[in-house]
Amino acid sequence: MKPIGYWLNRTDQALTATMNALLAEYGLTRLAWQVLNVVEDDPQATDTAVRTVLAANASPAELSAAITAVLTDDWATRPAPERLALTDAGRERLALVGERVAAFRAASVAGITPEEYRAAVSVLERMTHNLESGRER
Fold it and tell me: Which helix (H) or strand (E) holds 76?
């Protein structure tokens, strides 16, 4: 059996590659889509808030590039310095890809019961807390 780190890396790579392929026809990447979702969820979103929420998903440089991309593509705008808000085009883009993302999520957990999924997430969460708290020692 391969160790958990192997499967974590493979799973993340598979999620990113599949999402990027799925979203490419809509002009998005997984990370840009995540940025749009953070902005949609927080009407007072700032660059700092986006970077904080998505810190585990990408490097600061990758997050800055994704923020720039959604601004450049007119899916988000700056109503004030450092603030982000979705444009009508951004809201439409999220709605347009919503069904495809839902189908992707369903396909990614095919053959996995809700209980198994919750157990896997719970184990990974506990491992992360164990390792992060161990760094402080």
Answer: strand 76-77
